[in-house]
Sequence to fold (302 residues):
Amino acid sequence: MNRRTLLKGLVAALMGVPRGHAQTNPNNPTYHRLAAEYSARYRGISLLVMVDGKTVFEDYPNGGSPTRAHELASGTKSFSGVMAIAAQQDGLLSLDEPASKTLTEWQGDPLREKITLRQLLNLTSGIPGGNLGRIPTYQEAVQSPAEAPPGTRFSYGPVPFQIFGEVMRRKLGGDPLAYLQRRIFQPIGLEYAFWRRGPDGNPHLPSGAFLTARNWARFGELVRQGGFGKGSGWWMPPCWTGALSPPRLTPSTALAGGWPDPSTRPNGPPLARSASPLPTWPPSPLSRIWSSPLERVDNGFT
Fold:
């Protein structure tokens, strides 16, 4: 049971009732109970449901607890896109600038010098995503060759996020995680318990974050609000909506630098492998609901 299957099951439990009833009463405890039963049955350890920014249900079976942090695995990738938007607002970069502006060793390469940061984060740079079970160092990732022109192929994996980490490291002259914490986490009161780093000392951006369900939901609420954090004001520019839209090649992927847009429909089959399509969700009540499921597996959490 992977996280995608679990999340789809939880959404189904929340939504698997007559549509009119679900849309008018997302606070119905019956739906929460069904979701909790499903989660617990498949080794879930945390389930938190927020509606309109308010936590309406929590459940922590199988050894879970409100204070127990868990590995987000690829959920960690969600932070890179939001960090990029913040960096653009701060004048550190433009989403549509070539990565070679910072990665000068890419200049002169017929494929890599044209890759934009946006393409890097939405995984259409033409650089293979890499082995899902091995996170390269920043330098190893930067040395990866492109195998297709930018914007023509989707490839999921850790490499592009580590490349973006090196871009941010050079832009900042320091630690990307420290920027992420100062710029995004602290204003919304999000605290991570642990973050894996590589042998080069740099934080893993494709995976590596450990959060409690409550802290994970804080980030989800920030995204649901379009970049508005409680107590922090509007801190994201108008590009927020566009940056969160999925790339044309992968309108269904939810794990890249962007986020799924329920109103976006595929214009045709993806040109390369992508995540399996999520169900088409109505804008209500999912525009009001944020669920934060975590699943226990034999060798840790996913």
User: Anything to note?
Assistant: The chain has eleven helices and ten strands.
